Amino acid sequence: MKKLFCILLTLLPMMASAQDNTWERINVEPEQKDNPDAKYLKEDAVPEIDGKICWTKSISAPGKTGKQIYDILLAQLEKMTGEPNQIKNSVVAVKDEGALELGAVFHEWLVFKNATFSLDQTQFNYQILVSCSDGKADVRLTRITYDYDVNRKPIHYLAEEWISDEYAVNKKRTKLYPLSGKFRRKTIDRKDFIFNKFEALLNEKQ
Question: Which of 12, 61, 82, 101 is most buried by its number of CB atoms within 10 A?
């Protein structure tokens, strides 16, 4: 018996080390990584009005008259037509001071990748419509088309048939399709930049 007891004592450390003490382990949840495309996957990321992709924004401008807002946004739209990314024929076509309305047409480059021996870009065509009144501006960005690969084999895309949910987002709504997805990202980013710039200008202190 004594011999058996000694053998058990010898084996005890080995048995203890072999135990799977799961109760002592801290359960660590796997780290959830944010989807970098979350912003572009939202259901309202690319809205449609009457079957046309159209972004709208009502921008508050407290303390400014409709005429002041009109002058500020007219100056900004005219400035945009001369920026380096513009191609040609970008113009502020409607300047209705009486109705406080503006309409501009833009043809510009959206660059996806610019590296040595590799330039991937598209011609981005769209319209901006503005209606001003005391204290606010209602802005629309619409009538969007793209002319891609213009130097080799040009392809013309309508936004409704290219960056909408149907054409750019997978069915599970977890990712964007590779080709149309890059158009959707850049278009949304450009729209956000323009709207944010308008908002900043209208809220600057005079």
Answer: 61
C-alpha distance across the termini of the chain, in Å: 99
Whether the per-residue pLDDT at 124 is higher than 90: the answer is yes
Instruction: Judge contact between 133 and 141, C-beta under 8 A.
Output: no
Tokens representing 92 are 């502020």
Nearest to 148 by CA among 127, 117, 121: 121
- Rounded to the nearest integer, the mean pLDDT of the chain is 89
3-state secondary structure of 145: strand
CA distance 161 to 148: 14
Are the C-beta atoms of residues 101 and 94 closer than 8 Å to each other?
yes
Span 64-87, mean pLDDT?
97
Task: Report the helix count and the strand count for the chain, using DSSP H and E.
Answer: 5, 7
Confidence of residue 7 (pLDDT cuts 50, 70, 90): very low
Structure tokens at 200: 């900043």
